[in-house]
């Protein structure tokens, strides 16, 4: 269905659209299966989302499990360094 998600930690289906809380990138996505498109609704969350649910009045609630730190943001902007840090040392 969707590849390359970083720790999707919550899914809510609303009127044929799939809303995804992606913890690893601290963002909310909207997937439209009918057109097979993904839109980023918010990639500036103050922390890491831990689930997503629609309320009875149609709002989406997204709990934040932990706040982002300056170190997280610094490392997130450096994919080459992240790859080096996580590479096997064998």
TrEMBL record:
Q: Which domain of life is it from?
A: Eukaryota
User: What's any one GO cellular component for it?
Assistant: endomembrane system
Q: Which residues cross the membrane?
A: none
Alphabetically, the GO molecular function entries are:
hydrolase activity
Name recorded for this polypeptide:
Adipocyte plasma membrane-associated protein
């Amino acid at each position: 269905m969707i590849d390359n998600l970083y720790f999707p930690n919550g899914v809510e289906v609303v009127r044929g659209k799939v809303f995804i809380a992606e913890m690893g990138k601290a963002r909310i996505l909207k997937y439209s299966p009918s057109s097979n498109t993904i839109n980023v609704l918010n990639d500036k969350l103050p922390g890491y989302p831990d689930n997503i649910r629609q309320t009875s009045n149609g709002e989406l609630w997204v709990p934040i499990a932990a706040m982002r730190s300056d170190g997280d943001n610094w490392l997130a902007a450096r994919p080459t360094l992240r790859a080096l840090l996580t590479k096997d040392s064998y």
